Amino acid sequence: MERIEIQRVQFADLKNFCSQAYQKVGVPEEEAQIVADLLVRSDLRGVETHGVTRLPIYIRRLQKGFVRKESRITIVKEKGSTAF
Fold first, then answer.
1. pLDDT tens, 64-74?
2. In 1-84, where does DSSP find H-type helix?
3. Where are the domains of the chain?
């Protein structure tokens, strides 16, 4: 049976890596930071299927133009723990 070596990475370092990857393909810094934070936090919550493992897929989609690199988020209404 083959042993798999686990490498630990600090939260800030992994977030920075993800953010830099997004910025390299043209995502604005602020948006890259938000998405990177969400990916790393997904892993920390144990939801690896929606964490950093998706980074290569998301980057390819951005490169191919399947996803917009910039978004214009507008909050229409705030209520409790949600924003519409």
1. 999 888 877 77
2. 11-24, 29-44, 55-63
3. 11-83
Site of tokens 């519409």: 84
Q: How far apart are CA 37 and CA 44, in angstroms?
A: 11
Please state which CATH number belongs to domain 11-83.
1.10.1530.10
Amino acid at 26: G
Query: Is 52:11 a contact under the CB 8 Å cutoff?
Result: no
- What whole-number distance in Å separates Cα of residue 49 and Cα of residue 42? 8
Question: Of 72, 74, 76, 9, which Cα lies nearest the Cα of 36?
Answer: 9
pTM, two decimal places:
0.79
Question: CA angle at residue 82 from 26 to 33, to 5 degrees?
Answer: 25
